[in-house]
Specification:
By secondary structure, the chain is mostly helical. The chain has eleven helices and two strands. It has helices at about 5-20, 25-30, 40-65, 70-95, 95-110, 120-125, 135-140, 160-170, 180-195, 200-205, 210-225, and strands at about 150, 155-160.
């Protein structure tokens, strides 16, 4: 068993323990954000923030300044395509067979004509990009969102999204880097590229009265928006997803 698989299993075990100790009650279901281990999460947030400010963010800034926009776009297309099997598999698991067929066509076209995804001819012919993962699939199947969790290095999750990431990880080296040096290097570049795309929102986080709450609520909003395919119930705010508790 390689080290990464051991880490994945350990993360899953930890989240299951946390979940068993933080089972939803009727009162918790009425809360807008289910964050029963907030003191722990705040400590992990500070740890991650220090690493981000002094390591990842400076590298991401250098990456953005050094690469021309066309090359950055190419890398973003490549990474998106490399992760696309996750979307395809979860299309079918959610019963979205039409989307699954179109997304398979998108992946094949961008991998071949698009030169491993560096170019995006699929969008130009009307095959738009979708974004599905097993965390969303679990939500579609009625599995609750569970507690909000902040993990070192891996950042914000809910129990459901973390379980989904573990399940999705065999489908792409971007989530499942192996001991292979090339795979680890690819994972590192992906993390820097992903961080560079968030630089434009840094100032909002820095200026927030409580950055922890800002990041938490933004994360939950994004996850719930994606699970509902952008069609949130009109009578629910993005932080009143009581069906997911």
């Amino acid at each position: 068993m390689n080290a990464w698989l051991k880490l994945r299993l350990a993360l899953l075990a930890v989240t299951l323990i946390i979940s068993s100790g933080c089972a939803s009650t009727k009162g918790a279901e009425n809360q807008q954000a289910y964050d029963p281990i907030e003191p722990f999460n705040r400590v992990m947030y500070k740890v991650n923030d220090i690493g981000d400010r002094y390591l990842l963010r400076p590298v991401a800034v250098g990456y953005e300044r050094a690469l021309p926009p066309q090359m950055q776009s190419g890398f973003q297309n490549f990474f998106s395509n490399l992760k696309y099997p996750i979307t395809i598999v979860n299309d079918f698991l959610q019963g979205k067979f039409h989307d699954g067929g179109r997304d398979t066509g998108r992946f094949v076209l961008n991998t071949t004509v698009g030169l491993l995804g560096f170019f995006d001819p699929a969008t130009r012919v009307g095959l738009k990009e979708n974004n599905e993962d097993f965390g969303q699939t679990l939500g579609k199947w009625g599995v609750g969102e569970g507690p909000y969790i902040v993990l070192p290095l891996f950042g914000p999750h809910t129990l459901r999204s973390l379980t989904g990431d573990v399940a999705d990880s065999p489908l792409t080296p971007l989530i499942n880097p192996t001991n292979n040096d090339a795979a680890l290097a690819l994972w590192g570049v992906y993390q820097v590229d992903k961080r560079s795309r968030l630089l434009e929102v840094d100032q909002q986080v820095f200026e927030a009265y409580d950055p922890y709450l800002f990041v938490r609520d933004a994360y939950l909003q994004n996850r719930r928006y994606r699970m509902h395919d952008g069609n949130l119930p009109e009578d629910d705010s993005y932080l009143n997803d009581t069906d997911d508790k």
